[in-house]
Every structure is written in C-alpha cells, then in structure tokens.
Amino acid sequence: MPIDLEKFKPEYQKWVAESLPDYLAGNTKEIVKKYPLIVSEGVPWTPYRGQPSEQTFALVTSGGLYLKDGQPSFDTVSIHGDPSIRKIPKTVRQQDIGIAHAHYDHSLAEQDINIIFPINRLIELEKERVIDRLTDTHYSFSYVNNVVPLVTETVPRLISRLKADRVDALLLVPV
Fold first, then answer.
1. How far is CA 57 from CA 61, 66, 85, 112, in A?
2. Which of 30, 44, 153, 161 is deepest in the core (most CB within 10 A)?
3. 58 shares a domain with 36
4. For residue 66, which of 108, 116, 121, 4 has the smallest C-alpha distance?
5. Within 13 A of 112's CA, how many CA atoms are on the CB side?
6. What would the pLDDT profile of 51-103 be if each residue is shown by its tens digit?
7. CB 140 within 8 A of CB 60
C-alpha cells in the first residue's frame, strides 16, 4: 500500500499557501474541505487472529494526550499540526493527563479519559484474563496535517517500539 508522498507534497504546500490566512483567522471548517486527502486503494486489512487471552495489547489514540508533569504538550497552533508522539504509561491517572488537540471538544474526555483512551477498560480485561497482557507503554498523537514526517519518521519509530514490546494487537482510537 504505497503512499505517494511526492504527489502529496506539492498539493499540501498549495493547500497551506491558500489556507493559512483562514486558518490563522480560525476559519477551519472550509479549509478542511479543501485538504488534499491521501486515498489508499490497497489497504492491507488483516483479520484478527488468535486468542486475546494469549496476546499482548497496546493502545494508541489521536486524542492529543500528554503527561502534564513531564512532557511538552502538542503544537496546536501550527497549520501543519504536530507529527510527534507521546508515551503514556499504563499506570497513568486521569489527573496526570493533559489534552492538546485543537480540533475536538475535550469536555467529555476531561471527565473520563477512557472515552478517547480506554486504558482502564483494558486493565480490567487484563485482570479478568480476557487479554493476556497490556503493555506498560501506550501512545498518543495529536492532529497532523503534514503527513510526510508522520509517515516517514514517527510511524516507523512507533512500529519499532511496538515490535520491541511484542505487541500482538494494537487498538487505535481516533478522535
């Protein structure tokens, strides 16, 4: 499933040039409609195999989560977004988490983080032996408009970390 980043780059640069004034003015609804989406024709869907009770699970959210007392928040000002990732420990508590994402209402997640990062539900499944193991580290992205560094740098690093943790199943929770 190759992604044609060389085709995306000039389309994206044109979109940024045309959209930046509206973006800076807070008029994001119209510019989102003009974003040069990457449409992949060959998504390699893989059916789930195995027994959850014998597998290791990890969690990734695009909710813009970060640890208030130890990590920088995501860049929510740039039109490009922030292609970086934050590690979120399994032991995280609701009060330890900050949300830095400019494109959704945080109010429900601020009441219960499990809405966008169901870590406590997964811990319950682990305790009940429905799943074998939940990794000690999970991850969060924020919004990203410039997908080039995301695809070429961030995602390969994330995949390496997940492989090192011997993750069998990854739950992606988009917002």
1. 14, 20, 18, 21
2. 161
3. no
4. 116
5. 5
6. 999 999 999 999 999 999 999 999 999 999 999 999 999 999 999 999 999 98
7. yes
**What DSSP state is assigned to residue 168?**
S
pTM of the model: 0.91
Three-state DSSP at 98 gives strand
Best CA proximity match to 134, nearest among 147, 148, 116, 121: 121
C-beta atoms surrounding 42 within 10 Å:
7
Whose tokens are 């290791």? That residue is 56
Q: What is the DSSP letter of 94?
A: G
79 falls within a domain: yes
Q: Quote the number of domains for the chain.
A: 2
Give residue 161's Cα distance to chain centre.
Answer: 15
Residue type, 85: I
CA 41 vs. chain centroid, Å, equals 22
Give the structural domain span for 139: 52-173
- What does 48-88 look like in DSSP terms, one character per residue? --S-GGG-EEEEEE-S-EEETTTSPPP--SSTTB----EEE
d(C-alpha 76, C-alpha 106), whole Å: 14
